[in-house]
Amino acid sequence: MIEAVGVLVPVHDEAELLPACLASIQHAFAALPAAVACELVVVLDACSDDSKQVATRAGVDTITCAACNVGRARALGARHLLERFTAPRDRIWIATTDADTRVPRDWLAKQLRFARAGAQAVAGTIAVDDWTEHPPGLAERFARHYARGGARHGHVHGANLGVRADAYLGAGGFAAVETGEDHALWNALAGRPRIATRRIPVVTSARRQGRAPAGFAGFLVALAS
Fold first, then answer.
1. Which of 55, 72, 74, 93 could form a disulfide linkage to 176, CB 3.0–4.6 angstroms apart?
2. DSSP assignment, residue 207?
3. Per DSSP, what are the bridge partners of residue 64?
């Protein structure tokens, strides 16, 4: 039984999109049973804009680093959350998303249902809200690519990932890499009960200039070429 849920959001100059992200997470917290302890932390990584003020106005806890490294930022966020909780590690759930992403109200509730069924990690999918920065036809090309694998897909996104704390620690946590920390963690969890599901999609941006080298923005640019 999961007793505590922590959500971490790495942020590098995301003042414009961060408010919607934080509001969506708080709505997802509200859909959980009152007995579940909830914590949200924003990891401000080398920010030079008003991201800290945005988080503060939303009543969200922040920590700061200057790593310019999404893997390190996610790891710091997870460590912070684990320090806040007193529940046993196998009763803590850590979820992560991105600042340009909005999660559905049942995002955490569905992850915890998978956890109750035995899953120690859950990888969800993404949907794109606006294709205007990209050439015509890319949305259809992306949809065809993304549909591969059927219901149990092969995609892993830091924007839509959850893991039980003891499994997270046993796998070594997020690696301090600029790109691919989500895939590295998922691969390190091999052998544990994991589920990749299309039932809890999040909505993310399709901006051409992303924050992580070779991240989702770079993937879309490559797909369009």
1. 72
2. -
3. 44
